[in-house]
Amino acid sequence: MARKHSKKDPYGDLHQEEDTPESIPDCWLCGRPTGKTIVWHHPVPKSRGGRDVVPMHPICQQTLIANFTNSEMQRHGMDVEGLLADPAVRKFVDWVANKDPDFTATIAKKKR
């Protein structure tokens, strides 16, 4: 039986350059283009049965985690407008709107 890949570079076909550039997804929360680091966030937490994932900036995900519990995230589901109705999240999105896609900052800790 013939080998599918050479012994020296078994993953050679994965390293090939493509002519078409990848499209940069927009952040699910703020709508800005994502940067080098993309976090694939579960809008409905996995512990609550969520399977769908959406691209987000790390700072946007940290904001959601700091402002909502898993139960609240489950209630909102895929409804971004419901999350943006929260004053703290709206204030954050307005603040981060003009920042670089790879911008990071410390986020306030979760309210207990």
UniProtKB/TrEMBL annotation:
Domain of life (superkingdom): Bacteria
Annotated region (Disordered), positions in chain: 1-25
Compositional bias ranges of the Basic and acidic residues kind: 8-18
Name listed for the protein in its UniProt record: HNH endonuclease
Protein's organism: Croceicoccus mobilis
Taxonomic path: Bacteria, Pseudomonadati, Pseudomonadota, Alphaproteobacteria, Sphingomonadales
